[in-house]
Amino acid sequence: MIVFMVILCIALLIVLIMLEGVMPLRSSLSTFELERRAKEGDKGAIATARREALLGDVLSLRRGLSALFLVLFVITSVATFGWLLGVLIAVFVALEIGAIARISLWQQHVQKLYETHEAAILNFVEKFSGVIKFLRSAIPDVPARDRLDSREELHYLVQHSGGLITEDEKKLITHGLSFDTRTVSEILTPRSVIDTIDKKELLGPLVLDDLHKTGHSRFPVIDGDTDHIIGILHIHDLLTLDSKRSTTAEKAMEARVFYIREDQTLAHALAAFLRTRHHLFIVVNEFRETVGVLSLEDVMEALLGRKIIDEFDAHEDLRAVAARNIRANNHPVKREDV
Description:
The chain is α/β, with parallel strands linked by helices. 54% of the residues lie in helices and 10% in strands.
């Protein structure tokens, strides 16, 4: 009788280890992608989607059976070895069963056995879904895999998507994700490289030639200095001027000027461009001092993640030009930065 009970304990222990060693493989594809492929008639995707849908039931069944066989093992162990030794053996098995089941060689054999009978197991959980539903109500469900918890996680997925999307598409997505968190100050054209024209300047042939050479299509019109911008001069409006009559910049300019704070977001700036139907904003700081200009083109480049170079662009990056300080702003011979 003792020999039979010992054999029974060993058999129950083997079953426990087998149950704990089973770990149904999950698909590397998302639920959305599996469903998409299944709708297109991909038989492999249909089978995988079914397996994924029943995965929670399979794991619940495994946990339920593990709990049942552990109770049977405890009862058998106590009946075979007595209260003290039986309880000690049962406690040891309960604590170490997971580590024993994860032994590589053993787990490989158990996993292979499961995969051989997986179809029958899936049919079983489908047939007895009511019992499995009861088990799942008492046992925590499988955590969802398709939820994203942060923009950083989505950004990581985009960057590691391999050849699924092109580099241009990656840039478009990543720049779109960060668009509403970036500020105007990050992309504005700095004050030091703004080409302005004084309101009293006569728009003669020489001045017009100089304006064309800058490569810009719009010029802030100033009243004395850059902190007093009173209008915007559009170069296309100068084409209709009478060359025989000199006109001042103040008379030819558009008097409407739009200002935006440097700490505003690009999303706010884009909405303002669409609302005002204007293409150039003057960027100011908290003291209403001019710190630069912002164009619709600048905002679109930040959104798309690529430069928009047209026939009027003399420089690809005016911020880089400003950094080189080609106009020698505040750059005397005897200078010292502190």
